[in-house]
Amino acid sequence: MTLPDEPLFPADAAASSPEIREETESRVRRLVEDQPFAVLCTQGQGQPYGSLVAYAMTDDLASAVFATPKATRKFRLLSQCDHVALLIDDRPHAPREIMRIEAVTATGRATLVDEKDEHARWASLLTSRHPYLERFVRSDSCGLFHIHIFRYFHVCHFQEVRQWVPTIRV
Question: Taking the model in full, what pTM does it have?
Fold first, then answer.
């Protein structure tokens, strides 16, 4: 299967054993469920940018949603280039625990949610996880973005990297 983002691993890397795929999915799911914030990585005019966002994921981990004010660099960059990454980690407060840090990078494409029915669905997903964002998400000055996630890269033990591709469950 060819994915629309640029893979860093060979195509057969995603075809590892079922046990490794299940373990990787489980670890990705735990991080995503435990961590309410992520670093959104965008780009513009050859420059990378990172922004902290409150996000929510669908149960199948194939989609994410976040909100941002329309009058921001983040909104402008997302309007110009839809390629994004979300970095989610569980870094501890003590540097001596570096070997225990886990992180996932989800790569995908972000699109502004325009359609009224779709907006309500995605807004509901985000505000069910982050109820304090309710007024902000419903305001006219807010843009709601859906990310279609192509793959996850899971890192643990500081250098062990595994790739996992979510399967959309119907």
Answer: 0.85
